[in-house]
User: Fold this.
Amino acid sequence: QGQLEESGGGSVQAGGSLRLTCTASEIIYSSNSLGWFRQAPGKEREVVACIYRTSRTTSYADSVKGRFTISEEYAKNSVYLQMNSLKPEDTAMYYCAAGHYCRSGSASAVSYWGEGTLVTISP
Assistant:
């Protein structure tokens, strides 16, 4: 059964950095897309960054380009999200996701979700 385990959320001041980690089970690791969504209170869940593993390409939301970096470590079945220059508007629950969504960015194409890790950025 597929499983995603997240860690690394927390509270920092604006301008700070956090690194999220997601470790995937072998079944999930066969998905063509691995990455992160986020959902702020009262807003829809949106894709933040993903790796399209078929072509080894990455994709980012416009709002995080230049600040966030997604990377993958095969040996540990893990994907990371390095978040720098954090802003209060980055405050959200961040979810690791696996499936076939990186090209479309659609949450409906996600097959597996992690439980989420909270990121809070204070002004």
The two ends are 40 Å apart (CA to CA). DSSP finds no helices and eleven strands in the chain. The chain has a mean pLDDT of 93.
